[in-house]
Amino acid sequence: MLTGQADLQTAIKAVNEGRVFRFLTKPCPPEDLDKSVAEGIRFFKLTEAERELIGLKKWRQSLEDMIVAFIRVIEMRDPYTAGHQQKVTRLASAMALEMGLTQTEQEGIRMAATVHDIGKIYVPAEFLNRPGRLTEVEFAVIKAHPQVGYDILKNIDFEYPIAQIVLQHHERLDGSGYPQGLAGDDILDESRIIMVADVVDAMISHRPYRPGLGLDAALEEIERNQGRYYDPDVVAACIHLLRDKKMVMEP
Predict the structure, then answer these.
(1) Which end of the chain is more exposed for a tag (fewer CB within 10 A), N or C?
(2) Does the model's pTM come out above 0.85?
């Protein structure tokens, strides 16, 4: 505000009404006016950026809440895997931290792990809950869930490659995984972490066709197949957390 009436009441009123960035009095040197205008523009841009950031955070939280609700619907259809995605998320996040990944990478893994089985909404509940052996056709339907998850997530504007991570979480280093048969460096690091967390929790947990196999069996599986199916660095981090640091994985 530039004024020739530099009285206290005018200044107080202008500031209280929130319409003033800086109060200047006449005569005002041109360089002071230019500087104040430039700082005012900068302040306005920062304020607008802060508002946009707050709006983005609220949008992201709403999106995440909606996805979590969607996941709960899936788990209601399959009581044997209730809590599976939460446990995988917890383990995968701990592994990412243990491996020294960046904060951004850790957040991407946390989000992807939370939704990694979202494609199971496509799988009939009777397939998920069957105590006996699945037919080849039924197993093929279950194996389609990473692709379905990718199709659900691919058009959502995440900050991280969530859809790709979900698509690849059943791939294996030797190319024997699904749905694309990717191998080696073609598999995202985030997917390598989630695949190990997924295998460990699946083996520990009770299933319709078998009781839980226990932590020792799960760690033996990933240790025996490191370098073949699983990334050795990921396996080392997982074993260190569960065996050495005694991190608890509930059955």
Answers:
(1) C
(2) no
